[in-house]
Structures are given as C-alpha cells and as structure tokens.
Design a protein that fits this description.
Length: 552
Amino acid sequence: MEKRWQKAWPVWVPRGFDVEKPASEYIREWATYTPDKVAISFYGYDITYRDLDRLIDRTAWALIDAGVKKGDRIAIHMENCPQFVMAYFATLRAGGVIVPVNPMFKHAELEHEINDAGAETLIGLDYLYPEVEKIRNRTPLRNVVLTSLKDYLPEKPTLPLPPDAKEEKRHFPNTVDLADFIKTSQDRPICNVGDLRRDLALLQYTGGTTGIPKGAMITHHTLAYVCVGTMHWYHHREDDIHLGVTPFFHTMGQQQLMCTPLVSGGRVVILSRFVPEVVAQAITHYRCTYWVGATTMVIALLSLPNINDYDFSSFRCLWSGGTPISLELQKRLKELAPNTIIGEGYGHSETISQGGAITPLHRFKPGFVGVPQLNDIRIMDLETGTREMGPNEEGEITLKGPAVMVGYWNKPEETKEVLRDGWLYSGDIGLMDEEGYIKFLGRKRELIKCSGYSVFPAEVEDLLYRHPAVKEAAVIGINDPYRGETPKAFIILKPDFAGKVREEEILDWCKDNMAAYKRPRFVEFRQELPKSAAGKILRRLLVEEESKKAGS
C-alpha cells in the first residue's frame, strides 16, 4: 500500500532497498573502481580513493596493535580534516565504536562524554589536546594519538588557512603522533564488522528528557542504510563535489557531507571551520555541487558584502537545517545559485540526520520541512501518545524504521521512555498534511536550538553551578534573529557574592568554560526563581515572562 508521502517521491528514489556491507566498505569499492579519483581535498591537498582506503586500513591495524578490541569506544576529537575521515572509518574497520567529540568542548564537557562512553582511546588534534590534558587522569584514556592540520596541507594552499593550521606542530607527554602510530602498521585490507544489525558503529551524543548528553547507539546497518538512502534521495553521482564545512562531529555534517559523499564515490572539499569568505572562495574554486548547512551559516554567507563577486552557479542542491529557511532567504539563494534546488530537513542524532523528514527535490512546500524518507512518521496525541492524529492535526512527531537508534548507551530507563514498540517519540510537536508533508511546530522538551546545535538547559545549568558565586541557575532559550535561539541564564548569587559580581563577569567565565554555541549570551540576576511545590525550577514560567517582554 502506498504511503501518502510517496506521492511526492522523486522518480529516481526506490521505495525500498537494503544494504549488505558497512559504510567503510563502499570506500573500498570506489578505491577499486576509481582508484585515482580524488576523494577529499583539504585546502589544496588531495587524497585519492586508493590512498584514502590504504590510510584507513593502516590506521585500523594500528588501533588493533594498540590493543583496541571489538566494541571498544574510540573518541575522535577534531575539527574537519582528512585525519577525521581516516580515524572515523578506521574505527569502523577495526570493530570499534566511534565517539565524535565536539572540538569546541571545554574540559568539564569532555570529561563527561569520555567517561560516559568509557573511551580508552582518543584520536585528536594537537592544539585541542590541552583541554583533554586537564582531565585525562580522571578518565579511562590509555591511548592518545595526536595529529596536526599541518600534516595534510600542501606547500601552496589553494585557500586561506585557519590560524591553527599556521602554528607549529605541538607535542605532549604520554601521547603518540599519528604518523608514527601508523608507520609500522600492516598495509592490507581489514574489516572486523560481523553482524550489521547488532554491531555498534557509533555513539552519537545528544540530549534527552533530562538534558544530560546521552550516546545514541547507531548500528553499522543504520549508518550504511542512511548513507545509501541519502545517496538515492539527492541523486548523488561520483562527479558531485560536496562542501565539507559543516562540522563532522555533528550528525548533519558527519552523515550528509562526509559519509554519504564517500559512499557515493564523490569528492569532499574539507574546510576545518566555517569562515564565510573562505567558504565562498572554495565554492567558486572547486565548483561545489552540494551543501547542507545550518541556516545561520547560509545567512552569514549571504551577508558577505562582496557576495556577488563569487560564482555559485555550480550548485545542484542547497539544503538547510536547524531552523526554518525563510522565503526571502530562498529568493536570495536562488539569485546567487540559479541552477540549485533548495530544500530543508528535519532530523535527530537518534535518526542519524536523514532519518527524519526531507524536502523532495523539485517539490518544496513553504512552511514544511519535507516528507518522511527512511523512516515512517506518525503524529500522536500529546496527552497519551497512543492515538494517531489526522491530517493537519498537531501532536508529537514519532518515527519508526531502519534509521532509528537501538537505544541510549547505558541508559535503559531513558531508552524505554523514548522508544515504545519500536517508535521513537521525538518530544517534538508537529503535524502532517494530506500529502505527507511534515510541519515542525516546536519542542515538547525544553531544548534550545542554537545555530543548528542542540543546547540542553540542564547541561548549561550544571556548568554554571561550577562558578563559585552561583547559588541557583535556570537556563532558557530566547529568540535570536541570527542564531534561531540564544541561551539566557537566570542566576541567584550566593549571599557573599551578591552585589559584588556583575553579569559581565559571569558571561566572561562562560566564554572560558563552555563551547561558544551553548554559552549564555544574557544573564539576569534574580532574588528567586519560579518553582513547583516539589521545589523544581519551572523554566516554562521564565519562558512565558520572556515572551511577554518580547511581545511588549
């Protein structure tokens, strides 16, 4: 029976398919079929599929030589770079479980995720390591392998380099250099994946009902299925050139701009960070055909005063996520990139990005994020979650299918709460129209979506409590025309600090102790915070107060 959203199905996309090998083995196939084709470009340094495949195998063998066993978790602590790609797919081939760690994290945030995952091995960038070093003796880390952006840069870069790429390579005690790590490893194929549907490939950290980051367990089957499904959806070809600037540690950049392009035999132009001028130069120089980024990235790019000096005519697909893309923004994009198809998407770490709703190519519907593709979607009543809502009726977005996590790492109770009879209860409110298009309306849980990143109030509050002056704290999201939402902190100071600590001092402390996207940009001191009879802080009342202020 045809599902209602399949009426909007692109003609080249199969209604059903399956995968029989891990994502890493598609790279091996391309290394056989097109060995001399460039797989990744990094500021002018090119790596072919043949060389990438060999580097991945050698890194996998080095991990095994270092004692990594099947199922061991391996943290990857890097910005976008060729070494991220190597470490990611080498972990898969070695039988390990990838733990992508946010390179913007400060030491307290790193400590939680490394300990929660039980990672004994970390592969990271040298200039990021000082934050790890602060907490290393409080983690299970045994092996730390470091590399430098300089290791994979050409003598004459084609694009302006980020500041960290210009610094001298750094060395630290009790670490090993990646080049030395793989120097004596075996140079032959390896793939220690057994059961695709049981073996874990990835712990993608997210947040949930408690707001504390949790590892969404993604199997090899789910990862490969999503990559192949994405390839079909966007009609990816081996001559596509993907703009790999969206962060790889994040599910959107990782799956859409690293994994899927390499599974489909394309070329990934990797940039370590988003700098609008450099991105515009890269698009023009490499003739990029595909990009998906946070809406804030698109806004920043379009805000370049000399944007018309660049050539975006090569784009075939431009997608956004995180916050809705306005019609005005779409109009400006179409003027710059007249040959492109524009769309939106909605997904989660629990569905590895593409498993939510995606705009069908050539069939954008304003105000809607798209239709279900890899999973089925139902809209369920908000009260009980047991009654399916009709067309255009609001409810909770639930998802079921091969692109759903198997649960949260070591958190059975929270897994039961969100996975019911195989359906993932997203905590998001939306509706589905007669054609199967999904409209996202808001969040049932108190998640803050900032520049495409998920910010969880409980986590920010936990970090604020580490400040010696903070007695109580509550964090909410307030509207921000550029970032979508921005965290605001309401703080009660300890008596000894009242009148002696200024808001600016708290904000400066946040800069030093939190990733940029999650730190509060506004602080308000209070004598008291709204609470329930049980003493729980009621964030929703703070949200209502801020909404009234904004309205007036």
